[in-house]
Design a protein that fits this description.
The structure holds 2 protein chains of 2 kinds. By secondary structure, chain A is α/β, with parallel strands linked by helices. Chain A contains 18 helices and 20 strands. Chain A has a 7-stranded mixed β-sheet, sandwiched between helices. Chain A has a 6-stranded mixed β-sheet with strand order 9-8-7-10-11-19, sandwiched between helices. In chain B, helix 3 packs antiparallel against helix 5 and helix 5 packs parallel to helix 7. Chain B is elongated. Chain B starts with a strand and ends with a strand. The chains are: A alpha/beta, B alpha/beta.
Chain lengths: 506, 332
């Protein structure tokens, strides 16, 4: 299977040498032998039910939908489609577990359950990484080295908070909220489940989680881990489905809190839906991050940071550095180096250990990216796409950047959520601040300079929840993550992230 | 048997004849005990050694202390020999702890937490062995089991604290002027711990773990009353991924070794739990030589150690942390 999809339909349009003028051309000997992960040591079930009250239940509707691999377009499994009745059952199970078991359990014992989950994720991390790459299309080296270790670390980190909440809020007493409804996106399926579930459980809440419809598999494997860890039934319930399932969860009267990660558009709809209810809400939404490169930046490192910032996970990253702001004096050499570097990126089979760029998560997303790229070309921006072979099956988009982008252009304002970078220039630090903040979003930003004082100066002025200096896309459970402005509110991770799941007196 | 006067002039008993029936009864007694204990075979007794630099070692002095087994059902004979650590053993342990310091304090907080969690896993798997050891030290089965439970949960508590105290103790400092200022906790260095006589396991675990959780390294003096349980605990340390030299445990007399640790210039802190007021005062005085952070305590009773609000907490971590304030200019 994995061999097949790396086949190309047409010869390369150009060689590496055509793109990277100073690159050595090794001809065919430049190619790597395929190095796909084996998938024969575990089995994906043909069908997955809903995980409610510690049991696997068939959906009330009797309906199932297919989850497919975006790199092969093959069906991986049938997934239960939960409706309002299923959601109601899940909320009831969560309420029951909250009142009878989870909120009454000694916090130190709660911690031990969460530690168990963290351990099981570590133990099963290879299998989980492979399934993540099959279901979502991300390169195995990312799911193996980023998603999985971080998912385990989030459970591990929050386990430790469970019995230390008295320390976390400066003497204010923290009480759990009750039942948390959590809706997560398809870009980091298991990691987002961990970001949501771990703090909720640590603070004593119970959970109903709805995974994204294109990537439900790892959340269901996580449910299996909950089962094996003997987590009390109903503490976490997983209801799969699409938008309607999510809406049923948001609108359920007995949910105390909604946590949502996804698009700003849906986030706003949820915020409206909760108006007039007592439900608490945290939102982690879109972004259009500025990655600011000063002339005194270490250029080669910056190039790595730019590539990492926009092409990590095919650009399906809410904090992706999708607007490159370059000091005018280095625009030309930087663009040249970026082209050279992009010519080495390997696009293809997500399960191949050498793959840098995997598949676009869905056909719908591919169409959205293509439409925005078209609009960029129509706006007169100059496009460069890396010269990589596109497999015949599956959804793919070559790493791309635009130069000569106007601030008013759609590709400079809208979140593309794909491997597409818009390059803009600036002349002074003040202008860089102005341009960086000229967006409705405010999730993250990057600053590249050898002058520490300049980085801190810039960091103070950027309206963004996370600012990376001379690095990009760094995540840690101990570091709060979340946005300013229309990138949402609330933080995930760190001491601050706990606030999303507790009621405080005083 | 008759009386004889020895060289110091006191009377001693001297055997003059061998009574074969005495030997028979000895044989019978031993056999009976063995059969009762194991059913069929003589168990192999364990040599108890100190734990230094990740290895189990005897005292360089060759001296030993004898500890009586309170219960004859275990594998060991009625009496076991435990190393009686010397001044040189203490100094060797300081060197080892010092050389382990850079590596341990450079580990990520997350990694230290993982290792302490692994320690808790290993302790849980040796639960019964730890209970047996405490029972042989004179405790009831129920008390011992409760102590081991609490010790394991304490390891879990500190495993989860390794990557959290920073966000509770650090600060962003709102200094007047164009500077970004922050203060962060850092480990002090090599710390000596004089563990309480009792509880032998929970006292050692409660005093050592908060010190190493933050990146310090430790030389601990085990309970004199029940050093064997400390050594069983060291076997947990040795199989828990904790790098050698991070936690070193010596057995012997605190009165003999502790003052040397207090004098040692590579030791930056002492946490002494002892009822010996003269020793406490001596440690406080000797420690002044290199401005040591000397914390001395009388030994509280068991309920203190079992109490989650007193026997553990952030204060235990803070005692052996320094605060470092960093200033960085802000401007273009």
């Amino acid at each position: 299977m994995s061999q097949e999809i790396t086949k190309v339909t047409a010869p390369l349009p150009f060689t590496r040498k055509d793109v990277a003028e100073h690159a050595l051309d090794f001809g065919k000997s430049w190619e790597y032998a395929p190095s796909p992960e084996a998938t024969d040591h575990f089995k994906i079930e043909p069908r997955y039910e809903l995980f409610i009250g510690g049991k696997w239940r068939t959906p009330k509707s009797g309906k199932y939908f297919a989850t497919t691999s975006p790199s092969t377009e093959e069906k991986l499994a049938d997934i239960a489609e939960g409706n309002a009745e299923d959601v109601d059952l899940a909320v009831k199970a969560a309420r029951h577990a909250y009142e009878r078991v989870w909120s009454k359990m000694r916090p130190a014992e709660r911690a031990k359950y969460i530690f168990r989950i963290a351990r099981a994720i570590q133990e099963k991390s290879r299998e989980l990484a492979i399934v993540e790459s099959m279901d979502g299309g991300k390169p195995i080296k990312e799911s193996r080295d980023v998603d999985l270790p971080l998912a385990a670390a989030h459970f591990f980190y929050h386990a430790g908070w469970a019995d230390k909440l008295d320390y976390a809020f400066h003497g204010r007493r923290a009480r759990p909220l009750g039942v948390a409804g959590q809706i997560i996106p398809w870009n980091f399926p298991l990691l987002m489940a961990a970001w949501k579930i771990a703090p909720a459980l640590a603070c004593g809440n119970t959970v109903v989680l709805k995974p994204a419809e294109t990537t439900p598999l790892t959340a269901l494997l996580l449910a299996k881990i909950f089962e094996e860890a003997e987590l009390p039934p109903g503490v976490v319930n997983i209801v799969t489905g699409a938008g309607e399932t999510g809406a049923a969860l948001v609108n359920h009267p007995d949910v105390d809190k909604i946590a949502f990660t996804g698009s700003t558009e849906v986030g706003k709809r949820i915020q409206r839906a909760l108006a007039g209810t007592k439900k608490r809400l945290t939102l982690e939404l879109g972004g259009k991050a500025a990655n600011v490169i000063f002339a005194d930046a270490p250029l080669d490192q910056a190039i790595e940071g730019i590539v990492q910032g926009i092409f990590f996970n095919q650009g399906h990253v809410c904090c992706a550095g999708s607007r490159l702001l370059v000091e005018e004096s280095i625009h030309e050499p930087l663009v040249r180096k970026l082209r050279d570097r992009m010519a080495t990126l390997r696009l293809g089979d997500p399960l191949d250990k050498n793959t840098d760029i995997g598949a676009i998560n869905s056909k719908m997303q591919l169409e959205k990216i293509a439409a925005l790229v078209d609009s960029g070309e129509k706006d007169g921006a100059e496009r460069f796409s890396a010269p990589c072979a596109i497999p015949s099956k599956g959804y793919w988009f070559a790493p791309t950047f635009f130069t000569g982008v106007a601030q008013s252009s759609r590709i400079a304002r809208e979140e593309i959520f794909g491997p597409v970078l818009s390059v803009l220039t600036f002349r002074t630090p003040d202008e860089a601040v102005e341009k960086a903040n000229n967006t409705m979003y405010g999730l993250s930003a990057g600053i590249w300079s050898d002058k520490g004082a300049k980085i801190f100066w810039m960091a103070q002025r950027l309206k963004a929840g996370v600012v990376w200096g001379n690095t990009y896309n760094k995540f840690d459970p101990g570091s709060p993550f979340g946005g300013y402005k229309e990138s949402g509110f609330g933080r995930e991770g760190g001491r601050q992230g706990l606030s999303a799941y507790v009621e405080l007196d005083g | 048997m008759k009386k004889k006067t020895d060289t110091q002039g006191s009377d001693v008993d001297v055997e003059t004849t061998v009574n074969l029936s005495d030997l028979d009864s000895f044989e019978t007694r031993t056999m009976a005990r063995r059969e009762e204990a194991t059913g069929e075979r003589l168990r192999v007794a364990k040599a108890y050694k100190m734990y230094v630099g990740g290895a189990f070692v005897r005292s360089e002095s060759g001296r030993y202390l004898q500890v009586k087994a309170g219960d004859e059902k275990g594998a060991d004979p009625g009496v076991v020999n435990v190393p009686r650590g010397s001044r040189k053993d203490a100094r060797d342990a300081v060197l080892v702890a010092k050389s382990a310091l850079d590596g341990w304090s450079a580990r990520t907080a997350y990694n230290r937490g993982q290792i302490l969690y692994r320690l808790a896993e290993v302790m849980e798997s040796r639960h019964q062995e730890l209970v047996t050891s405490l029972v042989r030290g004179g405790q009831s089965e129920a008390e011992a089991s409760g102590e081991v439970d609490a010790a394991i949960d304490r390891a879990i508590f500190y495993a989860g604290f390794c990557d959290k105290y920073q966000s509770l103790l650090a600060s962003s400092n709102p200094v007047s002027g164009p500077h970004f200022g922050f203060s962060v906790p850092e480990p002090m260095g090599v710390v000596a711990v004089i563990a309480p006589e009792s509880p032998a396991l929970l006292g050692l675990v409660s005093t050592v773990l908060p010190v190493i959780a933050t990146g310090n390294t430790v030389i601990a003096l085990a309970s004199e009353k029940d050093p064997r349980t400390a050594i069983v605990f060291c076997e947990c340390l040795a199989t828990s991924d904790l790098p050698g030299g991070v936690a070193n445990v010596l057995t012997g007399r605190a009165t003999e070794m502790a003052p040397h640790l207090a004098k040692h210039r590579e030791v930056i802190g002492i946490d002494a739990w002892t009822g010996d007021t003269a020793l406490r005062e001596a440690l406080e005085r000797e420690g002044a030589d290199n401005v040591k952070r000397v914390k001395t305590h009388a030994v509280p009773a068991a309920p203190f150690w079992l109490d989650d609000r007193r026997g553990q907490g952030i204060g235990w971590l803070e005692r052996f942390l320094e605060t470092k304030s960093v200033w960085h200019p802000v401007g273009v």
